[in-house]
Amino acid sequence: QVQVVESGGALVRPGGSLTLSCVASGTFFTISNMAWYRQAPGTQRELVATITSGGSRRYENSVKGRFVVSMDNAKNTVYLDMNKLNPEDTAVYYCNANVLSATYRTSSYWGQGTQVTVSS
User: Fold this and answer.
1) Between 9 and which of 50, 55, 74, 114 could a Cys-Cys bridge form, CB atoms 3.0 to 4.6 Å apart?
2) CA 74-77-81 angle, 5° bins
3) How far apart are CA 103 and CA 39, in angstroms?
């Protein structure tokens, strides 16, 4: 079994910064890629950023230039550095980990989410 745990959510003022962390633990061979999603009340979950174990990154348009995703392969941890936050960034942020088993079977796991609120 694999566990995915996010941390770092908080209340922050507009224009502020915040860093989220997500660690994957349990039984797997290696991580293929990890991603951050977010879901605001009354909306669908949307992809924010992804990163592969090789370091390839992709961002949703509204966060380009403000958010940076990074991964520490040795710690099975992904980070999301969020800058210039605005109220539209308010959401529950979820981490998704796609891992490979010893037989190279891919499985996807989700964390419980961490709340980010941007408000004055």
Assistant:
1) 114
2) 125
3) 33
DSSP 8-state assignment for residue 14 = T
16: pLDDT strictly greater than 90:
yes
Contacts with 56 (C-beta within 8 Å, 6 or more apart), sequence order: none
Q: How confident is the model at residue 1 (pLDDT cuts 50, 70, 90)?
A: confident
Q: What is the residue-averaged pLDDT of the chain?
A: 96
The CA distance from 113 to 42, in Å, is 16
Residue type, 75: K
Q: How many CB atoms lie within 10 A of CB 52?
A: 15
Neighbours of 7 (CB within 10 A): 13
How far is the C-alpha of 77 from the C-alpha of 20, rounded, in Å?
A: 10
pLDDT in tens, 82-115: 999 999 999 999 999 999 998 889 999 999 999 9
User: Residue 11 and residue 31: Cα distance in Å, rounded?
Assistant: 30
Least Cα distance to 50 among 22, 13, 29, 74 occurs for 22
